[in-house]
Design goal:
single chain; 104 residues; mainly alpha; 93% helix; rod-shaped
């Protein structure tokens, strides 16, 4: 998730919590009923936030695994190219030595 998306989601969660609290406090109920309702709504929001956290954590883990896989592929490509250049260099040097020894 992008930084802007994370900030928006966090703001939306806090806004929902603030709205729920304001709605409950404005309702004509006893203190006990109000506290019980606040407790239930807070638990619901906590569960929602936990779910969002798990979703974000899973997405981040997938992105890290994908990036690691791509990095490993790139490393293997570089190793192959390096070995190819090394072999070609040795062949070039060997050919140059043979050519030099023939002229001498």
């Amino acid at each position: 998730m992008s930084k802007g998306g994370s900030k928006f989601a966090l703001g939306a969660i806090f806004g929902a919590i603030a709205g729920a609290i304001a709605g409950v406090l404005a309702a004509p109920k006893s203190g006990r009923e109000t506290r019980e309702e606040l407790k239930k709504k807070a638990e619901k929001k906590r569960q929602d936030a936990e779910g969002k956290y798990q979703d974000i954590k899973l997405e981040a883990t997938e992105k890290v695994n994908e990036a690691t896989s791509r990095a490993n592929e790139a490393v293997e490509d570089v190793k192959e190219k390096t070995e190819e250049i090394k072999t070609r260099s040795k062949n070039t040097i060997s050919g140059a030595k043979k050519g030099f020894n023939k002229k001498v």
